[in-house]
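Per-record layout

source: Sphaerisporangium album
name: Sensor-like histidine kinase SenX3
length: 354
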Amino acid sequence: MLRGRSIGITLAVVAVVTVAATLAGVVAITIEMIIDGHPKNVVLTVVAIAGLVGLGVALVVARRLVKVSRGLVAAVEAVSPSQDFVPPPGRLPAELDTISKALEQAYRRLREGRERERALEGARRELVAWVSHDLRTPLAGMRAMVEALEDGVVQDPATVTRYHNQIRLEVDRLSHMVDDLFELSRIHAGALRLTPRPIGLGDLVADVLAGVEALAGAKGVRLAAEAEPVLPVYADAAELGRALRNLVINAIRHTPEDGTVVVRAVAADDAVRLSVADCCGGIPEDDLPRVFEVAFRGEAARSPGPDRGAGLGLAIARGIVEAHEGAIAVVNEGAGCRFEISLPVSGPALADPI
């Protein structure tokens, strides 16, 4: 009946019931033992004093518990959305101290969650702005070329062929952008499905470099690989290949002509590392923590040109690597920067598709 009432009332009732039961028992024993006169008065006096002392101690303890519990509630109510939980001053009982620490951790996680949500919302707004710009520009160009072809403004075969080729290139680029957006949406929604199996990193690196060889040749960038053919890792070959390809393409795009992009695969303890080193001139230190954010493009020197993507490649690479329970990082090194993927050699948590 008292489980929904104040702790103070509960303790007071417990004390009263205890004293009343003890007093009743002593009185009954006294009567049964036919104690009379002065001994009887002494027994009843001792019992009464013990009861009053017990009741007083219960009230003091209850008051203390009520005070600290109200202080805990006040501390919770005083927390603003931008602040952490501050425990009430003074020493708390063990149970309430445990609750206070749990509240402190919960509020810290909530604040971190709100900060991540704000950062993600900012990234989404930036992504929408970049994608809108990247879509509007080629669409406007294609519309102008199509209208010129429809109106007969352009009739010479060479120009018509050039317009058709340009439209085809823009369509392909927009298709890649849509594919990247779809992949990123799957990653953010937790809908990325992996089919992990043992693969050799040497073969993976060779396949990726073969796929970007034409892009590197057109840019005048050399490609180099340093990997053991049988270096094993437990991963989804298609998705991991996409992550590595995004890093290599990013390196090629930001490496000047006659530069070199080096891809390495090495074993380190219980992990393997894939690294992509370029000659981009380095990334500003302030931008290093943000390079894997959605639509981040950094300084003007690294801003997209006609052959650039929508700024989603690195964000997709991070999502794929984290889905493999790995880590991805970037550091400035030598004449450029080095992107590195770390993956566990074996992945028991990836034994079944996720």
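summary: The beta strands are 197-200, 222-227, 232-235, 260-268, 271-277, 327-333, 336-344. The chain is about 60% helix and 15% strand.
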